[in-house]
Design brief:
Elements lengths: L8 H5 L10 E6 L7 E8 L5 E11 L3 H14 L3 H14 L3 H19 E11 L4 H12 L4 E8 L18 E8 L10
Parallel strand pairs: 1-4
Antiparallel strand pairs: 2-3, 4-6, 5-6
């Protein structure tokens, strides 16, 4: 399939004409990271210098006001009872926080991604340490803990701006890839 689909990926994933059950071999998911920042697309001049031209790409800020409807719809319609119970437990623990809003956005997408993944398929979920533990529990519920294959640490070149003078924290120099298969008969090709 050489096709680029624009818009909310959940709308596309729910379109069974575009994504029938068990139709995808491999999924690499690089969702927003709940970074509480706005991101712009920057352009360069032909000389290579950064241009003043830019446009807003996306906002990576999550609020419960925006996510509450998605959460309640998910709770009412998700066929996986264990995942519903987990989401309700997350909500009880996290209340109406930005992290809960983020998880409410991720849960229905991960359920749909599981649906479209072939029995021999795999999912790589790129996340950061602020959400990886929640997303691992969610994926354990959706894919089954027995189908967790690995947590891959991806080291960045630098700590970016998280370790500034005056802030009492270490710089974050890694991201996480959670690797799950849909079943025990997953395909592995190492070259």
């Amino acid at each position: 399939m050489n096709k680029l689909l624009f818009g909310d990926n959940l709308d596309w994933l729910r379109n069974r004409d575009e994504f029938p059950n068990e139709s995808v071999d491999l999924i690499y998911l690089d969702p927003p990271f709940n970074s509480n920042a706005d991101y712009n697309v920057l352009f360069r001049e032909t000389s290579g210098e950064v241009s003043q031209a830019q446009f807003h790409a996306f906002t990576d800020t999550w609020s419960w006001a925006d996510a509450a409807e998605t959460y309640h719809q998910f709770i009412d319609t998700c066929p996986n009872v264990a995942v519903v119970e987990m989401m309700e437990a997350f909500h009880s623990f996290l209340k109406n926080s930005p992290m809960m809003a983020y998880l409410a956005m991720m849960a229905p997408r991960l359920v749909e991604l599981h649906r479209v993944l072939k029995e021999t398929g795999s999912l790589y979920l790129h996340c950061d340490p602020t959400a990886s533990h929640y997303l691992k529990l969610m994926c354990d519920g959706i894919f089954g803990a027995k189908n967790f294959r690995s947590e891959i640490s991806w080291k960045r070149q630098s700590a970016h701006s998280d370790a500034k003078q005056g802030r009492k924290q270490y710089g974050n120099i890694r991201d996480v890839l959670l690797f799950y298969s849909k079943s025990s008969s997953w395909t592995w090709i190492w070259q």
